[in-house]
User: What shape does this take?
Amino acid sequence: MDYTGCQVFVVEDDDAVRDSLVLLLQSIYKNVNDYASGTLFLENHVLQQRNCLVLDLHLQDMSGLKVLQELMARGLRIPSVLMSALVNPSLHVFAREYGTLAVLEKPLDHARLLSSIDQALEITRPP
Assistant: This one.
């Protein structure tokens, strides 16, 4: 897949997890922007043509679902991958309501993460 014009956002408050994700994703997608909080992401993100949001559910300042709610309130739908150490069936239901493509349990399966990001970027590919 050609990742030109693609942008991946990582929102994770754990520095070590965020740094390792960014290193992995930059080796593939090149244009990766990371944020330590939902608030920083909402205040500073700039959407490009093709986007994907990799988002932790349990952030210190707000939940990942709250970030997705705020995006929807702004009329923005970014295909998202939600991460959590605690995944339950109700989380999948709520996550789908906010446009989440996948809910992945930590520690992350890198193959599933990359596959989910590819799917998100394919969805946002212009016709």
